[in-house]
Amino acid sequence: MKNRKILIVEDELIIAENLRYILNEYGYHFVDVAGSANEAKQLFSKKLYDLVLMDINLEDNSGIDGIDLIQILIKKYSFIYIYITANADIKTIEKAKTTQPSGYIVKPFNNATIHANVQIALNTIQDDIYFTYTKTGMQHKILVSDIMYVEADGAYTNIYSINKEAHFIRKSIAEFLEIYPTYFIRIHKSVLINKNNIQGYTSQSVKVNDEKLPLGRAYKQNFLENIKDLSFS
Prior knowledge:
Blueprint: E1 6-9, H1 13-25, E2 31-34, H2 37-44, E3 51-55, H3 66-73, E4 80-85, H4 90-97, E5 103-106, H5 111-122, E6 130-135, E7 138-143, E8 147-153, E9 156-161, E10 166-169, H6 173-179, E11 184-188, E12 191-194, E13 198-201, E14 205-208, E15 211-214, H7 220-227
Parallel strand pairs: 1-2, 1-3, 3-4, 4-5
Antiparallel strand pairs: 6-7, 8-9, 8-12, 9-10, 11-12, 13-14, 14-15
C-alpha cells in the first residue's frame, strides 16, 4: 500500500506541502503536487495515480472547481479520490456526492484524519485491471499488466501478452490507447507499448519482453517525456 502513487491538487502551496509532509511521515513517498487544474491534467497524462486528494475550491484560471475536475479526469483515468475543503455546506456536499468520492475531509484537518482517510480509501483499490473482448461469441479477458505491446494489423490489432500469445481484436490502437492512456505509450504509427514493462531502449528501438520494437522519430520526444520517472529491469 505504501507504494501507491498519490496526487495532491491544492492551490495553496503551504497546505499542499503540509499534506505531502503528513503522507511522507506515514510512509507514502510517491506523492506529487498540482497547484491548478491544468497542472493536474498534465501530470495525469504522464503518470497513473492511485489516489487523488482534491481541493474543491481551486482558485485558478480554469473556471472549474475540484469536483468539476474530478468529473473530467474520471472519464479518462481510473483512480480513487478524497475531497479536501473548507466548505461543508449542503450544496457543496450534494454536488460532491454525485461523483461518489472515497472521503470528504473538512479543513482544518489533522494528521490522524488524513492518515485514516487515506488508508481506508487505498484499501478499496482492486489491483487487477482486465481488458475484455469477444471472439467467436465468447468473452475473453487479459490482465492489462500482462500486456507487453499492441500492434496494428490493418483494421485489426494484435495484443501480445507476457507469454507472447497474440490476441486478435477488432479495435484500432488509437481506440486502445484512449482506454488505457496511462499504461501505454505510442512508439510507432503501428505500435503501443506497456510502459510498465519496458526493459530498456536505444535511439531507434525499445525493448519489451526481450523483443526490440521500432521507436519512430515522430514519437521519440513523447516517449522520452513519458518514461523520465521510470526505472528499467
